[in-house]
Known about the structure:
Two copies of one chain form a homodimer.
Chain A: E1 5-7, H1 17-20, H2 23-29, E2 34-37, H3 40-50, E3 60-63, H4 70-76, H5 78-81, E4 86-89, H6 102-110, E5 115-117, H7 123-131, E6 138-143, H8 148-165, E7 168-172, H9 178-188, E8 194-199, E9 207-212, H10 213-216, E10 228-233
Parallel strand pairs in A: 1-4, 1-5, 2-3, 2-4, 6-7
Antiparallel strand pairs in A: 7-10, 8-9, 8-10
Amino acid sequence: MEVALYLLPVTLGETSIDSVLPPYNKEIIVQIKHFIVEDVRSARRFLKKVDKEIDIDTLTFYPLNKHTSAEEISGYLKPLIAGSPMGVISEAGCPAVADPGADVVAMAQRKNLKVVPLVGPSSIILSVMASGFNGQSFAFHGYLPIDPSERVKTIKHLESRIYSENQTQLFIETPYRNNKMAEDILHNCRPQTKLCIAADITCEGEFIKTKTVKEWQGKLPDLTKIPCIFLLYK
Amino acid sequence: MEVALYLLPVTLGETSIDSVLPPYNKEIIVQIKHFIVEDVRSARRFLKKVDKEIDIDTLTFYPLNKHTSAEEISGYLKPLIAGSPMGVISEAGCPAVADPGADVVAMAQRKNLKVVPLVGPSSIILSVMASGFNGQSFAFHGYLPIDPSERVKTIKHLESRIYSENQTQLFIETPYRNNKMAEDILHNCRPQTKLCIAADITCEGEFIKTKTVKEWQGKLPDLTKIPCIFLLYK
């Protein structure tokens, strides 16, 4: 096994490891003793799910969140520099994509350390695949502004890029505000603009549906508390 | 197994199925008899690799390329409408993302048929993860224009979005023009702009390296004939 910073995706919810992660990931994970993680408790739970034989007490966890300083991150990489492979685990899906991890990867790249991303579920790619929208040009924007007028402005701006650049536009929302987001889209986009709602991806209630704004009117499902990604295209 | 249009990723090159595809994909694949494929020969090869017990002669393949008309695509979906699960397979990675498939998915969405994307390797997500660049906002642009002046204009435009929108910019090139593309970036971007070159992702020669334009000067690896994705960020 090569000494590297391995980027280890996790499941997107209550789904089995076998449904979303390649067997190779387990082979790599069981050889790693040092994990940089978004949340220690859920990382431990994930590792136990990967292999219940893993002795969690022999592992070291380095917490990674918005309060982690650049100095701390630099310190975290010491085992890797000393020759031990390390892993990065975020809360859901792929680390460093719409999730923490990019800072530690950037630091590893600056220090010329090897970085190896492993395959796993990304709601971004899965939703682009299933939307029927342009997969040759698309942009992911994370969360839109919370301020109502800024938010409407952003939605309209993204909609304009669909038409001016033929580019699929993706964004997310905190689950308890999903219904509001869907309504904001229906109220501010053109009737013929298409909206794909991709909810609970890879999980039991998976729902990925594309309709025009006009067709969605009055027919929105309840998206409260369900992880969702929204896609717009023409 | 649910009746649906399954989007089935394949390996990105000469790598094992187990390293990039979840076991669940095989469970699904062996139950499908109708495949819409970018290339019949490579699809057969992939299916044999997934399970050498698959009797290829009992399967039906529907070729999908830029010459396939909307009417043909609509016809392709008849088995699905009649109650048989179908699969979509492209040449490399995830169907409908930087690859054909989006038209057939769009048709399935219009006909209100269930679409289920399965997890697999996407050079786009894997390279964003490993670049250390912004994974909260990124845009994939496919191929840039071939015309030299249009191309330089596009590179500069994408570079400006790094700074104005804090957005990671990704694009690809046909392998035999990769060296030219890398040179075009070095000649036209600011010295401090960062370029991540991600080559041969998930394969034996995987190389993912982030440096500033200035640092890359005179130190570009030979990228001819190697599948590559280019990422720009500040």
